[in-house]
Amino acid sequence: MSKFVIAPPPPVGLPVQGEDALFPVRRVYCIGRNYAAHAIEMGHDPDREPPFFFQKNPDNLDPSGEFPYPVQSGDVHHEVEMAVALKSGGRDIQVGHALDHVYGYALALDMTRRDLQGQAKKAGRPWEIGKAFEHSAPIGPLHPASMVGHPDKGRITLHVNGELRQDGDLAQMIWKVPEMIAYLSQYFELAAGDIILSGTPAGVGPVQRGDELTLTLAPLGEMRVRVV
Questions:
Q1: Which one in 19, 27, 168, 174 has a CA-CA gap of 20 to 30 Å to 203?
Q2: For the chain, what are the domain ranges?
Q3: Fumarylacetoacetase-like C-terminal domain: which residues (predicted)?
C-alpha cells in the first residue's frame, strides 16, 4: 500500500557515458558570475568577492537535445557551463578533499529568461522566474571522473548556427570546483546526487526557435541542442 496520497513524481536521472544505469539527481546549485569577463559584460566588478549561488530544480535538467523556447519571455539567453555531479557530500568539506566527492562532469546550459531575470534584479527579487523554468538546463551525458579526471583547464565554447558566441577556458573560473564545493558545504549539507553548474564565460546572448547550439569542452567532447 502506498504511503503517498498521490503518486510521487518520477525521479530525475541523467545518462552516464558508457553506462546503462542513470545518475540520480537530488539538487541543482548554480554559481553566478564565475568568469571575470562575464561579470564585466553583466555590469559587475570581477574582483574575487565571496561566491553566490542560485538553484534550479532537478527536473529542469533535460538531456533530450532539444530546448523548447519558454513562454512569457522574448529574450532567452544561452550560457554554456560545465556541470559537476557529486557522489557523496557532507558539511564543512575542506578544499583539499572536495574532489573526493565528485562523480563526474558534463556539458550543460543555463538557459535564462533574461528579460524576466532583469525585472527581478531591478525589484530586488529572487531569480527563479528567469532561471528555474521547464527545460532550462539542457545537459549532456555525465563523464565519470575515473575516466576523464578532474578538468581544471581547457577551452569551453558555444556556437549558434556555426557562429562562435562563447569562448573561454576553465582556468578562467574565479572560484574553482573544489572551492565551490567547500563553500557550498558551509551553508548546505551536500549529498550524493547534487549537481553544480560552475558558471559561464563571456559572450552570452539570445537564441531563437530553430537555432542549433553546439557546445564543446575537452575531454567531454561535443553536445548539440536545438531550440524548438
A1: 27
A2: 13-227
A3: 28-228
